[in-house]
Write a structure and sequence with these properties.
Layout: E1 13-14, E2 25-26, H1 33-42, H2 47-54, H3 58-70, H4 72-92
Antiparallel strand pairs: 1-2
Helix pairs in contact: 1-3, 2-3
Length: 98
């Protein structure tokens, strides 16, 4: 008797225009996927360290990383744009207390 494959989905990422301007976040939190990506790729943290630092479960961390790799080009472009904007603000001292 042949068995039928069952596909399971773990939905841990959401977007909401009222949360972080609609940027992808871990569902039920305001933690952006990009924060998890930066912690992993730039800071070299392990998924376990990220989960502990942000009070998340491992499925949430891995879900964020899976979302990133599924939308890499789009996410990289958005993160680069935000980085440029932040650098421009810093250069112009916008938001500076000095």
């Amino acid at each position: 008797m042949a068995s039928e494959a069952v596909i399971h989905s773990i939905n841990v990422i959401s977007t909401n225009p009222k949360v972080r301007n609609g940027r992808p976040c871990i569902d039920g939190t305001s933690i952006e996927v990009s924060v998890i990506v930066i912690a992993k790729i730039i800071h070299g943290q392990s998924p376990e360290e990220i989960a502990a630092d942000y009070g998340l479960s491992l499925p949430q961390v891995y879900g964020a990383l899976a979302y990133y790799y599924s939308h890499k080009a789009e996410m990289d472009a958005a993160m680069e744009e935000r980085h440029k904007l932040a650098a421009s603000f810093k250069e112009q001292r916008i938001g500076s207390r000095r």
